[in-house]
Amino acid sequence: MSAQAQPNSFRIGPDERGHFGQFGGRFVAETLMPNILELEKAYNEAKVDPAFHADMEYFSKHYIGRPSPLYFAERMTEHLREVSTASGLSGGAKIYFKREELNHTGAHKVNNVLGQILLARRMGKKRIIAETGAGQHGVATATLCARFGLECIVYMGAVDVERQKPNVFRMNMLGAKVVPVQSGTKTLKDAMNEALRDWVTNVADTFYCIGTVAGPHPYPAMVRDFQCVIGEETRQQMMEMEGRLPDSLVACIGGGSNAIGLFHPFLDDKDVEIYGVEAAGHGLDKLHAASLTGGRPGVLHGNRTYLLMNQDGQISDAHSISAGLDYPGIGPEHAWLHEMGRVAYISATDDEALEAFQLCSRLEGILPALEPSHALAKVMELAPKKPKDHLMVVNISGRGDKDLFQIAEHLGNKIA
Amino acid sequence: MAGLVPAIHVLRLRFKTWIPATSAGMTPLHHGFTPPLSRAKDPAMIKRIEARFEQCRAEGRAALVTYVMAGDPDPETSLAILKSLPRAGADIVEFGLPFTDPMADGPAIQAAGLRALKVGQDTVKTLDLIRRFRAEDQDTPVILMGYFNPIFVYGVDRFLADAKDAGVDGLIVVDLPPEEDDELCLPALKAGLAFIRLATPTTDDHRLPAVLANTAGFVYYVSITGITGAATPDFGKVASAVERIKHHTPLPVVVGFGVKSGAHAAAVAKGADGVVVGSALIDVLKGTLDDQDRATSRTVEAVTTLVKELSEGVRSVSKRAAA
Ligand SMILES: Cc1ncc(COP(=O)(O)O)c(C=O)c1O
After folding, report:
1. Is the separation of the CB atoms in B311 and B56 below 8 Å?
2. CA-nearest residue of chain B to A120?
3. What number of CA atoms fall less than 13 Å from residue A387's CA on the CB side?
4. A97: alpha, beta or left, given left = phi > 0 and alpha = psi -120 to 50?
5. At a CB cut-off of 8 Å and minimum separation 6, what does B228 contact?
6. Domain count, chain A
7. Which residue in B275, B273, B179 sits closest to B223, CA to CA?
8. Which keywords label this protein (chain A) (predicted)?
9. What ipTM did this prediction achieve?
10. What is the number of H-type helices and E-type strands within chain B?
11. Which of A327, B46, B215, B255 pairs as cysteine with B197 (C-beta 3.0–4.6 A)?
12. Which residue is closest in CA terms to ligand 1's atom 1?
């Protein structure tokens, strides 16, 4: 997309200071710096320790239920081929779902949480804090804290507590303390501010388990590494099923963790088209959460990235029907991949996501979460334009149970 | 941990994508620092800070540093407060640059920033207020304190030029640790503005030299691990922390976070070169606002009354014996 020089590999970042090109870094208060350096050191040690990998492998398999299936979505494929034919193209890609919604706790978030909680144990930290938007990361964190007997405090914007009630209840059942955040816009960004404030206050004994590829270095790289299992499995599964790599990948983007997890292992396969789908909310000219499409570079929550903000650098309210995408920033590696032109970042509105949710539910018997419904909305647009031998993988990052009350409301019928 | 795992799993490294961009076990402290600049090229601004500390030393006392938010609750009232502060006994004034997401601040300062933003305060207007303050007061150092994003978006070079022109002497930017010195600290020093660093209870002796390397004007010791306006520090511990920092730097060391009264100010003044008070002033200000967060006839006076009390606290401690 731009005149930037292309690197030999898209997979070597970040540099030692946590930069992906101009993005990333460590923009945090001095109080936190020693912690962040300690975490970086612990992570660097863990990632070359076979015992750590063995633990990851064991719990991924027996507790999370990995590998997640790569599923040929036959009826979705047929439907979109009909759409293609109706528009005179007679194409229609072959669509595969990467079924992260089948993981224990119902989303991809748990892959990362497992890694961070095992790391927290190595570091001897007994108090775990997390921020959450949709509640999926909070639930995953509460779950692993229950499993390993750790104290768990989850910060959640008061607005999100309201619209994701089932997850709040789940966290409570798992023994976590959910703190509704009343400051600012009372959504994910404020939950992250509050978690950082907690961390600044309780530096010595607390591990901050960040839920996406954001925050200060080393979080964006570490969370990515823990999520890369999605793309690695997809590669192997596609080789087994089709004997070749996919032609395109599609994933939704809040902070970008499910997306980078799928994308990263394919970044150097130049023939694989990659699409990241941001939330266009009410529309890109109205309230939305599409940071790359509608934002500019800035600094928030420990890193430089694209942000939604006004002329003065004040962070804007994001909006998406999906609490998990309702964030005014995006992981720094995505900002870099956007500027390098390696990944195409597009967006889907609330209404498009709702339509895709219904289509997927009826055709495939799978209720996707509202977040991956955004990715599905763009699959519905992209797939009919591709030839029939085009292999398209979409990441079904989570299941829709948590969203049912909200979807019912939008569709005009109340669940009692 | 490994004991939890059947031996059969131990052999394979699972994350094939992991490319060791950073080698295991490196001490990142040695990476990314630029060697200290010996002195800022244009010391005019830093001089104003030095002169003020010199004056306090000559008077045998610690300095009183006050923090209020620019534009809170409205620009004219915040300017009136700013002007009243030196008269009430403040030696150095910190002016907060409002930001929507102040991740190291407690509820009082968060709310102050949002009040200011609500009435349209921005970086241009904040610099304007400082310019108007400077037209009447050429001696009181003005420190702009805030977060990096509004400055980054304004443009670092343009910001430094405009801040200097407005009469700003120094900057405190909470989310710029030494690891990010290239962003603003080094350009600020080149432009002749002091970049004042926060040292905290977590800044150990190993890290202190890096934290102090490019700082100028004074060092701000954050008395607690925590956010503004929260806990009251253990004053004994604070004094020994200041001692420790002074082994590493000739710069004055001021102490902030958790100072709420004249008695607190006096307690901190015993062991430090200066005392910073912010949230307590903002709490008092907030208490005078009407139900729509507008200033009342009591607003300016309520703030100056507390500043006078703090000033008396600071002045009640003679530092001549120690000097
Ligand atoms: C199911 C699901 N998908 C996606 C996201 C967005 O996060 P990310 O972009 O980090 O994958 C969330 C966040 O809550 C989620 O719950």
Report:
1. no
2. B1
3. 3
4. beta
5. B104, B105, B106, B108, B109, B257, B278, B279
6. 2
7. B275
8. Amino-acid biosynthesis, Aromatic amino acid biosynthesis, Lyase, Pyridoxal phosphate, Tryptophan biosynthesis
9. 0.95
10. 12, 9
11. B215
12. A398
What local confidence, expressed as pLDDT, does residue A134 receive?
A: 87
Q: Is residue A212 part of a domain?
A: yes
According to DSSP, the residues that pair with B254 across neighbouring strands are B220, B274
Cα of A133 to ligand 1 centre, how many Å?
A: 9
d(C-alpha B315, C-alpha B175), whole Å: 32
Dump pLDDT digits (tens) for B257-291. 999 999 999 999 999 999 999 999 999 999 999 99
Tell me how crowded residue A89 is: count the other CB atoms within 10 A of its CB.
14
Give the angle A351-A356-A358 at the CA atoms, nearest 5°. 100
Nearest Cα neighbor of B73 from B286, B302, B278 is B286
Q: Is residue A125 annotated as part of the catalytic site, yes or no?
A: no
CA nearest to A240, candidates A70, A383, A66, A67: A70
- Output the CA A94–ligand 1 centroid distance in Å: 24
The answer to whether A109 is a known catalytic residue is: yes
A283 & A351 share domain:
yes
Statement: residue B322 has pLDDT above 90 = no
B175 close to A302: Cβ distance less than 8 angstroms: yes
The contacts of residue B294 (CB under 8 Å, 6+ apart) are B73, B74
Q: Which amino acid is at A180?
A: P
Can you tell me the distance from the alpha carbon of A222 to that of A198, in angstroms, rounded to the nearest whole number? 21
pLDDT tens per residue across span A198-255: 999 999 999 999 999 999 999 999 999 999 999 999 999 999 999 999 999 999 999 9
User: In terms of residues, how long is chain A?
Assistant: 416
Who contacts B78 (Cβ-Cβ below 8 Å, separation ≥6)? B68, B69, B70, B71, B72, B116, B129
- What type of residue sits at position A122? R
Of the candidates A115, A118, A140, A121, the residue with the CA atom closest to the CA atom of residue A130: A140
Calculate how close chain A gets to B117, using CA atoms only, in Å: 9
Picking from A252, A314, A128, the residue whose alpha carbon sits closest to that of residue B121 is A314
Pick the closest to residue B306 from B292, B291, B319, B287 (CA basis). Answer: B287
Calpha distance A317→A286 (Å, rounded): 11
Residues A297 and A194 in one domain: no
The answer on pLDDT for B42 being more than 50 is no
CB contact B30 to A (< 8 Å):
no
Range of the domain at A405: 70-105+220-411
Residue B66 in 3-state DSSP? strand
Residues A134 and A267 in one domain: no
CA–CA distance, B219 with A96 (Å, rounded to integer): 58
* Residue A13 at interface with chain B, using a CB cutoff of 8 Å: yes
Residue B276 and residue B253 in contact, taking contact as beta carbons nearer than 8 Å: no
**Per-position DSSP letters for A212-261, written without gaps between them:** SS-SSTTHHHHHHHHHTHHHHHHHHHHHHHHSS--SEEEEE-SSSHHHHH
pTM: 0.93
Please report, for the domain that includes residue A374, its CATH number.
Answer: 3.40.50.1100
A213 shares a domain with A232: no
Q: Does B135 touch chain A (CB under 8 A)?
A: no
Q: How far is A355 from chain B (nearest CA, A)?
A: 34
Report helix, strand or coil for B127. helix
- pLDDT per position as a tens digit, A37-59: 999 999 999 999 999 999 999 99
Pick the last residue of a domain from A200, A218, A236: A218
For A317-341, write each residue's pLDDT tens digit: 899 999 899 999 999 999 999 999 9
Q: Mark whether A101 and A114 lie in a shared domain.
A: no
Q: Are B165 and B128 in contact (CB under 8 A)?
A: no
Nearest CA in chain A to B122: A312
Question: Which among A371, A380, A381 is positioned nearest to A406, based on CA atoms?
Answer: A371
| A78 vs A98: CA distance, rounded Å | 18
